[in-house]
Task: structure prediction
Amino acid sequence: MSTLTSESAPPRVATVPVDLRGLWTKLAVFLVLMLCAALACLFIKPPATVSEAGVVMHLPDEVLGFTGKSEPISEGERVLLPPDTEIVKKLYTDAQGEQVNMQIVLSGVEHRSIHRPEICLRGQGWTVSSGQIVKVPLASGRNLDVMVLDITHQRRAENGAVVNVPALYAYFFVSKDAETPRHWDRIAITNLDLLLHNKSHRWAYVIAMAPVLKGLVPGGKDRTETLDEIKKFLRATAPEFLKSEMPRTGQAG
Result:
């Protein structure tokens, strides 16, 4: 009977088959991830550059016989608007008691400072009935396009009766390189310049508002007269705050 000795053949070692398909799949995934990372580094842009403002935050003390009184920023504005928002307000009154309210709101890095005016007005209790774009001829010879809203607010008279007080609310948006009276145009300009030029506009929102007091107070102006007054106000004040309307020496501010 035969027996096993140390000189017998060594035991056979089992071999493990290599999964070449899985290896190539992992390698392909790794290369795709590396390519995506390289493309991201190549095409992702740095944070957008914020452009210079197109306005100077200044309203004159006297306009066409009206005296301006600075008004403080409301608590609601302090809470809701970003801290880098700049606001200047003045209420102008003449000897007959006629009033025109002017404001400039300038956004900072964030764009939440500037919004669609109709939303804010309705939130303050105003009813917006219509809107139209009006051309304001400026001293430079060009026309400024302004959106004019017809708005109404209920107020209680001295005799206790509730009356509807109409007003005209004129506004436009301006940056260093653009002006528009339309909110959606401003959004389109902002997005297009961010996409194509990586530039973020620092928009300002300019407002002129006056009540239409015909039939409510003696000598009150009708709508046409009130609109003419607003247009004259914008024409007179534009060189004070619009950089595009200032002499070259005044645009450095």
Remarks:
- Confidence is low (pLDDT under 50) at residues 1-16, 37-44, 249-253.
- The helical segments are 20-43, 75-80, 117-123, 183-197, 223-241.
- The chain has five helices and eleven strands.
